[in-house]
Amino acid sequence: MVAVEEKNIISSYKIPFSDVVAKKRRNAIWNRIWNIRDMIYATVLVLVHLFCVFAPFYFNWKAFWVAVVLYWITGNAVTISYHRNLAHMSFKLPKVLEYFFAYCASHALQGHPIDWVSKHRFHHKYVDTERDPHSPIDGFWFSHINWILDVDYMVYKVGKRKNVADLRKQFFYVFLMKTYLLHHIALGILLYKWGGMPFLVWGMNKWWQVDIGWCVIRLLERVGLATDVKVPSESQKQKMKTYLGK
What we know:
By secondary structure, the chain is mostly helical. It is about 60% helix and about 5% strand. A hairpin with a 6-residue loop joins strand 1 (about 10-15) and strand 2. Helix 2 (about 60-85) crosses helix 3.
């Protein structure tokens, strides 16, 4: 077991409007050495939000519908592919369809499949403990955004990522890992060529997400493309209701 080093813990405090006592970690922004991945993640986050500032000035209806279509494709691909298919293995797809959804999900700017799935599997394995990659016990800002910007701190929490061997064995996922940013650059170039700055500004942003992925999975199951679909049992649902106090 990899323990979280105490030198990274600065102090403790209570999160407002809750009974959770958070342990404040080292500052994810200041007084530390940034590696190249930290700088890339921070740059992408800043650029995405800058694009949002310019969005009203480049509005047109074609750009708006490009944003809606890309949202629907990429946002729902994350929940269908990264979350349910790869992280939880809650259903199976033909490889071609599996890779298609994973590629669409990669354009949601949430990381390549190996990275996303590894963190999410660790999150469920160590939920709300010292080893949870983004638990609220580490504080509000860390659990929402700072954990993305401090890659080295993830090593302190979970050690080497040996929980995605199934994905590392597949060439497609390794290829996406090594060329991840290139696909976003290519999409940006295509959007600019097709519709100029309006398409680039509106098309490269993910402003909201409505989870309709389950409807898509059920549709795939109906037509025979999704198999071995796993759903919670009644006893599991009752346990969840008890846990949530409902």
